[in-house]
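Re: [ENG-882] Designed sequences occasionally contain unexpected residues at chain ends

Forwarding the minimal case from QA. Structure tokens:
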């Protein structure tokens, strides 16, 4: 089986006081773990048993009989991606290639911060906000529930989880405060630059899957 439960890239108390250890223990150790365990249970003994997680997501997307598998597999992938979007002492203005692209495509950092925050706050109900590369340009989008850009022609670079379980322990009902804390104190821009530099990334995999 190629699907695996990723280690957190930092200790569970490393994002304190922005995200508490209690919140991380529940979010990573219980919520993410459950999505992973459910995915494993559902692919055991099936055609998906030895598939990469990205392939499972793309092949189950939009298929009503595979909706439960899609939801759990996508949520497993989304969380692994999200943990890597954060680091202790992160956030604020980026540098490097992503800073130049934000200036070029999104009218600068202040506008990026405003639009990303508004997109995350406006996602009605559970979901995710994303910074993506689409058609050679940056864009900011949101997706409901477990949906993610892997099933589209956009390549994800950054995401924030706006399910209530992501912020209710530390921020109660104040989603805007959580999103601001993510922007100002958590984002790992080095990781975003690393993803930018990975030639092709998920677009290449999508092209390969599409040519089969
Ligand atoms: Mn979550």
């Amino acid at each position: 089986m190629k699907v695996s439960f990723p280690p957190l890239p930092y200790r569970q108390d490393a994002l304190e006081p922005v995200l508490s250890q209690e919140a991380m223990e529940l979010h990573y150790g219980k919520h993410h773990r459950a999505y992973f365990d459910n995915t494993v249970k559902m692919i055991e003994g099936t055609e998906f048993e030895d598939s990469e997680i990205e392939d499972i997501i793309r092949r189950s997307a939009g298929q009503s009989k595979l909706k439960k598998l899609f939801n759990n597999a996508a949520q497993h992938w989304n969380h692994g991606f999200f943990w890597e979007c954060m680091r202790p002492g992160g956030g604020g203005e980026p540098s490097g290639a992503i800073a130049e692209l934000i200036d070029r495509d999104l009218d600068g950092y202040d506008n990026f911060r405003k639009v990303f925050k508004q997109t995350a706050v406006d996602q009605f109900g559970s979901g995710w906000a994303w910074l993506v590369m689409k058609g050679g340009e940056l864009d900011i989008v949101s997706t409901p529930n477990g949906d993610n850009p892997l099933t589209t022609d956009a390549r994800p670079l950054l995401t924030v989880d706006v399910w209530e379980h992501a912020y209710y322990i530390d921020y109660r009902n104040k989603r805007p405060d959580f999103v601001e804390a993510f922007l100002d104190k958590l984002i790992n821009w080095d990781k975003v630059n690393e993803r930018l530099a990975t030639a092709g990334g998920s677009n290449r995999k999508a092209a390969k899957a599409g040519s089969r």
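QA comment: On inspection the terminal residues look reasonable. Residues 27, 31, 79, 161, 163, 165-166 surround manganese (III) ion (CB under 6 Å). Proposing we downgrade this to a documentation issue.
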